[in-house]
Amino acid sequence: MLIALSQEGLGVIAGRCIQGAAGATILACGMSLLSASNTGKAQLRAVTLWGAASAVGAAAGPLVGGLLASTLGWQGLFWIDAVIAVACVPVTLFAVKESSDPTRSRSIDFAGTVLIALILAPLIFALTNGSAWGWVSLPTIGCFAITVLATFGFFMVERRVKAPLLDLALLRNWVLVGATLSILLGSGTVNAIMYVVSLYFQNQAVLDMDAFQAGLATLPIAAAAVVLSPLITPVVGKIGARTTIAVGFIIMSVAFAALAFVQESWAYGMFVLPLVGVAAGMSLQNGPCSSLSTACVEPREVGAASGISNMARYVGAAVMTAIVASVYGSVTANQIAVGASESAALATAFSWSSIAMGIWCVLGIALALLVARQVTRKPGEFEYAAAAASTSHTLTPPERIEPEAGATAPAGARQG
Question: Which residues span the membrane (predicted)?
């Protein structure tokens, strides 16, 4: 409602901050409650339904959003979101059972939380504005300096707090680190390309789509991810997790290589196959990485490992999008400054953005050589179902968590 009522950018940004904080709470707690409320096959079915809903939302979101923005204006989007949110309050209160673990510490790592924000916010700010400020300017260097100091402080704090936000001991697990970095690269790359595609498709100098047309244009990408999700488990069963992850990154690398040849004369049809390739590759690498991130640790560490991989998803999306936004904006400005037409400048910017994302995917292929080499156990049925169900969350597999003495809550409540 705050966003819908806003008359300037500040109100929109404030509302988005609130949405982000609330969304993080809903995602983590919602999945924990879902898994704690069901067991056995019912649990697998619940996770699958959740994944299906998430996939449908991902596919329909840009399309419905574009339609509403074109007909009701952008404020209409947020009024409808507000109505849905209000309707969910009584549904949650009356239909969802509470769950908690009395053996868990009630301590909150406020210092670690603040330091994470101090690491990411200046970093993203510098990456986004560095080309305009100058990469060696005082504001840019200052932002990077804050990030470095906050990173050092974060590791110092996490060694001492009672309930750390991040268990530093897990960073010694190279399989978890490799899987987490793979998730960061894959999710970050997909979010970054969707950002560039949205700008490029709607620019009047190139494809000149309206919001609805741009949403419709992204439908094949979401559809590819939805169709491939159920196929991940049998593919992994045939060729193995490490090979599946590597194949996923290879497909993404080839797709970005194709997009690097974009020309200002390209019509929409030239983009479809490479973008579907990006979605297909991301689906192949993300699912196994999500499963392995919880399969490579001891049962008592599964929740924390799940939390690390989920954090990597959102950090990757924020940082990679900021980097690509900087590349896209700076290349466009430089090309126009040397006399290129706007359409040619935008095509060149899209090309260089694709090259940057392709490099990240090549790094992902190298990471695949590290992942799954020393896994202590193979992912179970639940983990593969959870990984295949959605590309947006790594779910803690409840049956793998060994209850502590005196624990009364379902293990599924222990979401990382």
Answer: 12-34, 46-70, 76-96, 108-127, 133-155, 175-200, 212-232, 239-260, 266-284, 314-337, 349-372
Which H/E stretch holds residue 256? helix 241-259
Structure tokens at 375: 């896994």
Question: What element of type H or E holds 199?
Answer: helix 174-202
pLDDT score of 17 more than 80: yes
Question: Is 183 in contact with 175 (CB distance < 8 Å)?
Answer: no
Rounded-to-integer distance, Cα 39 and Cα 37, Å: 7
For the chain, give every domain's residue range: 7-96+169-402, 110-164
What is the spatial distance between Cα 135 and Cα 83, in angstroms, rounded to a whole number? 44
pLDDT digit string, tens, across residues 28-48: 777 667 767 777 667 667 766
* pLDDT at position 416: 36
What CA–CA distance (Å, rounded) separates 337 from 184? 34
Whole-angstrom distance, CA of residue 175 vs CA of residue 185? 15
Tell me the two tokens of residue 160.
Answer: 């001492």
Q: Is 17 helix (H, G, I), strand (E, B) or coil?
A: helix
What sign for the dihedral angle of Cα 41, 43, 44, 50? positive
Tokens at 399, concatenated: 């049956």
What radius of gyration do the chain's Cα atoms show?
A: 22
Q: The pTM is what?
A: 0.78
Q: How far lies 68's CA from each of 61, 62, 148, 168, in Å? A: 10, 10, 42, 45
Name the DSSP letter for residue 404: P
∠ CA 353-122-391, nearest 5°, is: 55
CATH of region 7-96+169-402, choose from 2.60.40.1940, 3.30.70.20, 3.40.50.10070, 1.20.1250.20: 1.20.1250.20
